[in-house]
Amino acid sequence: MNTLLPPSDQLQYTVKEAAAVLRYGRSTVYELMDEGVLKYVKRGRSRRIRRCDLEAYVANLAPLPN
């Protein structure tokens, strides 16, 4: 099993790769997609998350209060 993160020049990520980048579990990424919080593209049965959508999701996360 490869534990390295995907290359940063990658344009699309699988759910597993996106989960690794976000440091979330796969099921959490699926929940975010199903809730419409994390955008994705679908081709057949395959879902891919664009790098720009991952970056937008992270940019919109609210910081914790001090």
Can you describe what's shown?
This protein is α+β, with helices and mostly antiparallel strands and 66 residues long. The protein has one domain (12-59). Helix content is 41%, strand content 15%. It contains three helices and three strands, in the order βααββα. It has helices at 15-22, 26-35, 51-59, and strands at 12-13, 41-43, 46-50. It has a three-stranded antiparallel beta sheet with strand order 1-3-2. A hairpin with a 2-residue loop joins strand 2 and strand 3 (46-50). The longest helix has 10 residues, at 26-35. The protein is globular. The termini are far apart. The model has no long low-confidence stretch (mean pLDDT 90).
Number of domains: 1
Q: Indicate the mean pLDDT.
A: 90
Structural class: alpha+beta
Main β sheet profile: 3 strands, antiparallel
Care to count the β-strands?
A: 3
Q: Summarize the amount of helix as a percent range.
A: 40-55%
- Count of DSSP H/I helices: 3
Write out the strand line-up for the largest beta sheet, numbering strands in chain order: 1-3-2
**Strand share of the residues?**
15-25%
H and E string: EHHEEH
Distance between the termini: 38 Å
Low-confidence stretches: none
In angstroms, what is the radius of gyration? 12 Å
Q: Which descriptor suits the 3D outline? A: globular
